[in-house]
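Input chain follows. Return structure tokens only.
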Amino acid sequence: MPEHPPEYFSVEQVAELLGLHVRTVRGYVRDGRLRATRIGKQYRIARRDFESFAGGPGADGSDGPGGPGAAPGSEAPPPAAPGPLHAEASVVVQIDAIGLREAARLSNTLLAAVSGPRGGGVPLRIETLHNEERSTLKVIVLGAPADTAELLLLIHTLTTENRHV
């Protein structure tokens, strides 16, 4: 008896199928780029939503050429013109020789800078981590390349021109 693909996938299964990290898939779900249903504390992704996200069969709502119940040999309609590509930047900036107070001030300044609405409507995500023992601050930025570039310019300005943020 042939084995049918599952109707629902876990985040872990989707990550494995796409060759991505589980956190990346969860981020896509939280951002709304990958549709999922939350069941308890876990997400489940419908096969149709997974295929739509991955661009596989069923991405157009059909089960293959001609769609479900189509006459044998009928052709699928031509695909719609593709939309704009999506690009996201992931950047880690390490700032050396920075004390706890200065790191807190810089972190707060950066968080305030990204808290407002962005041009593309997608907020920048930012995390900061200060290692007091090594006197380093790591700033992790995820977002649209243009917005990320603006934030990198702000980091450059704050760390080179004005040591006392």
